[in-house]
Design brief:
Elements (H helix, E strand, L loop, with lengths): L3 E3 L10 H12 L7 E4 L1 H10 L2 H11 L8 E7 L15 E5 L2 H15 L2 H9 L9 E7 L5 E6 L10 E7 L3 H6 L4 E6 L2 E4 L10 H16 L3 E7 L4 E8 L10 H4 L23
Antiparallel strand pairs: 1-2, 2-5, 3-4, 3-5, 6-7, 6-10, 7-8, 8-9, 10-11
Length: 280
C-alpha cells in the first residue's frame, strides 16, 4: 500500500501526524483503541501537486483493508495539530459513520480540502510559533457503538487544580446536542471520588478504570492530558490523547475544543461548554 499504514505497527512512520502518533503511543502501552489506519501526508502532498488522480491510488489502498459492513470515522491528523504549541482544536474536518471505500475516499478528500480553507489559513497566520508548513495525514478508524462516551482530564483545565475530571453521556451524545442534557460528571482527588452524579448509570468499576487509566497515562507521558473515550458495554476504548496545555491557547469556549469528534459520539460532549478558557 502506497498511502495507507496500520496504526498497529511497532514503529510508525513520521508522516502520520500528531493525533495518530498519540494514538499509537496509547496502543504501545497496551490501551485499547479502535482498529485504525492512517492515510499518510504523502497522499496530501501528492494531491496538491497531481490533483484527483491521487484518489485512484488511495481507492486501491482502501479496497485492501476496508470492511464493507463497518462504519468508520475519518478525521484529521496534521503535523501541527495537538501539539504543545498549538492544538488546532475544531479547525479541521471530521466525519462519522462513513461506509464503503468510495465514501471514505471522498471523506479523506474533504479533510484535505478543509485544510486549505480560509479559517485554517487565518489560524495559521495567528499562530506565530508555527514554523512548519501544514501537512495533513488522515485517520480512518472503525466506529465504536458506545453505551457511554466521554472525556477525561488529568488536571482541571479551567482552574489548574490537581484533580481528575470525567464527563460522560449515554450513547453517542446525540441527546446532549439535541436535547441539551447535562453530562454526568465525576471529580477525583487524591484517589477518592469527591463529586459524582446522583444517579450513577455507568457499571461499577468503569469510572474507577477511567480515572486510574487517565492518571497512569499522564504519569507515563509525564504531562497533563485530555483524553476521549468510549465504552461499548464491555470494553473501554481510548480514541484521543492530547496535551492539556494546548487547551488554554485561545480565548474560546471549550465546546469548540470538543468539535473534532469521538468515533461513535457527536460532539460537543461538554466539559463546561459555557465556561470560557482563560488565556495566558
Amino acid at each position: 500500500m502506497k498511502y495507507l499504514v496500520s496504526l498497529n505497527t511497532k514503529k510508525p512512520p513520521a508522516n502520520i501526524g500528531n493525533k495518530a502518533l498519540n494514538l499509537h503511543r496509547l496502543w504501545q502501552k497496551k490501551y485499547n483503541i479502535p482498529k485504525t489506519y492512517i492515510c499518510t501526508w504523502d497522499a496530501y502532498q501528492d494531491y496538491q501537486r497531481l490533483g484527483e488522480s491521487v484518489l485512484n491510488t488511495l481507492t486501491l489502498d482502501l479496497e485492501r483493508v476496508i470492511e464493507s459492513d463497518k462504519s468508520y470515522a475519518v478525521r484529521s491528523s496534521a503535523n501541527i495539530e495537538d501539539s504543545t504549541i498549538s492544538s488546532f482544536a475544531g479547525q479541521f474536518t471530521s466525519l462519522l459513520n462513513v461506509r464503503g471505500v468510495n465514501q471514505i475516499c471522498h471523506a479523506v478528500q474533504s479533510v484535505w480540502e478543509a485544510a486549505q480553507g480560509e479559517g485554517v489559513q487565518v489560524y495559521l497566520e495567528r499562530s506565530k510559533n508555527l514554523t512548519n508548513g501544514l501537512l495533513m495525514a488522515v485517520i480512518i478508524q472503525e466506529m465504536v457503538t458506545p453505551v457511554f462516551s466521554g472525556v477525561s482530564f488529568s488536571r482541571n483545565p479551567i482552574t489548574g487544580v490537581e484533580e481528575t475530571i470525567v464527563e460522560a453521556v449515554p450513547g453517542d451524545g446525540s441527546q446532549l446536542v439535541q436535547s441539551g442534557i447535562t453530562p454526568l460528571r465525576w471529580v477525583s482527588r487524591w484517589g477518592a471520588i469527591l463529586e459524582k452524579p446522583e444517579s450513577d448509570q455507568l457499571p461499577p468499576g468503569v469510572i474507577e478504570q477511567i480515572v486510574q487509566d487517565t492518571n497512569r497515562i499522564a504519569k507515563l507521558f509525564r504531562q497533563d492530558i485530555d483524553l476521549e473515550w468510549v465504552y461499548d458495554g464491555k470494553v473501554l476504548y481510548w480514541v484521543q490523547l492530547r496535551d492539556i496545555t494546548a487547551l488554554a491557547e485561545e480565548d474560546i469556549y471549550s465546546n469548540r475544543i470538543a468539535r473534532e469528534m469521538l468515533p461513535g459520539a457527536i460532539k460537543p460532549l461538554v466539559w463546561s461548554v459555557s465556561v470560557p478558557i482563560p488565556t495566558r
